[in-house]
Structure formats: C-alpha cells, structure tokens
Design goal:
Strand content: over 45%
Structural class: mainly beta
Radius of gyration: 18 Å
Order of helices and strands: HEEEEEEEEHHEEEEEEEEEEEEE
Strand order of the largest sheet: 2-3-6-15-9-10-11-12
Number of domains: 1
C-alpha cells in the first residue's frame, strides 16, 4: 500500500513549496495526481538587513483526475532562503518522551509554551473491501532540543484508525551554502492508517512569538533583500508517480 504524507505535508513552509513551478500559488499535475498549494508570509513589509518575526501560512490540497485515492508522498527535501532564520533560543523545548502516545489535547498540555505552530490535516483511508472514508487530525509543531547542535522541531499528529496512535516526526534544520539557500530540511514521511491512508488536505501556520528582554522575538524570522523570499523543494511520490521539484517565490518589500 502507498506511503502517504500526513505530518510533513502540513508543515506550512515545507509543503507548499514542493509542488513544481515558480510562484506563491501553484497547480501541478503529475500523471493523474493533482496538487494545489498556496502560501503567505506575513508581514510582507520587512527590514532590508535585519531579521524580524514572520508568520507563514499554507494550504495544500491533493486529489486525482479520476477520483481515485492519491499516491502518497514519501520524502521531502527543502532548501530555505538564507535571508531568513529559525530562532529556537527564546522558546521552551519539548521532548519526544513527553509526546509519546499522547492525544492532541494531551500533547498541548504536556508542552504548551513549546508550541510554535498549529494546523490540521485530512486523509482518505481505503481499507481492503471497504468504502473509502476521511480522517483528520490536528497538527502541532513543538520546539525541541537541538540535534547535534542543529535546531529541531517535533511535529505531532494523532490518528484513530486502525487503532489510536500518536505520530511524531522530528525535523532537523541544517545549515547549507547553496547560492540563495542557507538552510535545509529532509524528512521521510510516516504511513497513515497503517499504510492505507493518503493525505488530501493540510492547513498550517508556523510563526510563534514571545518576549525577550522587552522585545518581541519570533521562532521564524526573515528580512527582505531583493524583493523576495525563496524556497526550493524536491518531493518524492509513492505509487510509481516519481518525483518533481519547484521553487516558491514570496514577494516582499523592504521597510526601514
């Protein structure tokens, strides 16, 4: 059965960029697979030289031209604009141990101040001999302890079929030096519903803020140089669909 994306696809800045082409709203067809995505960075007015907090929101829809269950997404590799950053230092940290076997509500209660983003994901489940049905789960993004000194998030989702289960995916942010890009995340996608599920919708927002020394600081930050922010994504599909890549360009304008 296909492997499918539940958590990774809903990571706002991750999912919306990896669907081919160059735009801030994209439509892609790969075989019979249809992917529509949009993303928005707010505010669009940012300092030209110093980073300021931003909030990133995206919506991604996956369907097929013939109405069948979509192929799963197996892996994402994403490179982020060097004119942005993730700053986990001002936020409390949550560990995998605290989130194991937790419902969404229990996960929030375990580490409320470590939450840096939230969203929702839906998937269609097709068990053998049964009619397809839809499941959904909140998505919660936690600031986590660094991995070998690298910023790390934990993405939490909770599925109830075929049995209740918390899905946890660590996302490690690595520094790279690749022209426009300065950061990279690579994520293997978990199975949904024991491998019988395929993601169809995700909505998410990442960009918590807090106070430090009387100033507002953000988990996600950016500045506007050259009138744009840019992310490159490479996405691998299951079900024989192969892979594609693309670039999301978000316009911005310099202030101050």
């Amino acid at each position: 059965m296909r492997r499918a994306l539940l958590i990774g696809m809903a990571v706002a800045l991750l999912a919306a960029v990896a669907v081919g082409g160059t735009a801030s709203a994209l439509h892609l067809q790969v075989g019979k697979l249809l992917v529509d995505a949009n993303a928005k960075v707010e505010p669009s007015g940012l300092p030209e030289k110093r980073n300021a907090p931003v909030e990133v929101t995206s919506t991604v829809r996956v369907s097929t031209s013939d109405g069948s269950a979509p192929a799963g997404l197996r892996k994402l590799v994403l490179q982020f604009d060097k004119h942005g950053s993730i700053d986990p230092s001002a936020f409390p940290k949550c560990t995998m141990a605290k989130l194991q076997e937790t419902t969404s509500d229990a996960a929030r209660s375990a580490c409320p101040k470590a939450i840096v983003g939230e969203g929702i994901a839906r998937a269609v489940v097709t068990f053998p001999g049964k009619e397809p049905f839809t499941i959904s789960s909140p998505l919660i993004f936690f600031n986590a302890p660094p991995t070998a000194g690298k910023p790390t998030l934990i993405v939490h989702a909770y599925e109830k079929v075929p049995e209740p289960k918390a899905l946890l995916v660590p996302l490690v942010v690595e520094r790279v030096s690749k022209g426009r890009y300065g950061y990279q995340i690579s994520a293997e996608m978990p199975e949904i519903a024991g491998g019988y599920g395929a993601a169809t919708l995700s909505k998410a927002t990442i960009g918590a803020t807090t106070k430090r020394g009387g100033k507002t600081v953000g988990f996600v930050n950016a500045h506007c140089e050259g009138g744009r922010l840019q992310v490159f994504g490479l996405i691998f599909f299951g079900g024989g669909e192969g892979f594609t890549n693309g670039t999301l360009v978000q316009p911005c304008h310099a202030e101050g």
